Amino acid sequence: MRKELKKSVFSLTDPSKDKSKKDAFAERLKERVNLLKEAYSEYKKWTDIVGKGEAANKVKGSGIFDSLFKGKEPVDIENYRDELNKILNQLDDKTKERRELKVSIRKVLLDIDANAMKEASDKAAKELERYVSDVSKKWDIYKQLVNAGASKKDASLYAFGALSEYEKKSEELAEKVTKKMKDKGVYIL
Predict the structure, then answer these.
(1) CA distances from 184 to 45, 144, 165, 174, 187 (A)
(2) What does the alpha-carbon distance between residue 73 and residue 22 come to, in Å, rounded to a whole number?
């Protein structure tokens, strides 16, 4: 009889001692995380179309996610990562549900970081591609001008807007040689 009583006793302060009930706190936070994920997904869809500020307004104004944007702690959908970290910081390891939710949030945070890294590398690749394309066009113009009879100096100035490094070095060398020759009394016309 005593064993049965001990099993049925639960604690109001420590949810891990009450095995028969779910962790209401973890459940509420889990619902909030899921709603936050949905809101952020909608925000990302709209961001590509109307920009960040207007996308945030669309999501807030939809009414679907009112529990996130109204109340004591309204979320800032533009700072999704920070909002997830706020929830993560509220969780301890007292119950299985809380530990599982922490793992789930950490996975989402890793996905956010991976997506940010991919976006940054895609942006850098596009910039590099644009730069290479621009330089290739300039070199094509330079070659066409030289083949048409323009001097390398004039072609470089026209194609690149300034002398190329090669042209600068060759001019410096020519000036040094001319100066040395003048110092020796030799003049070239």
Answers:
(1) 75, 40, 29, 15, 9
(2) 24
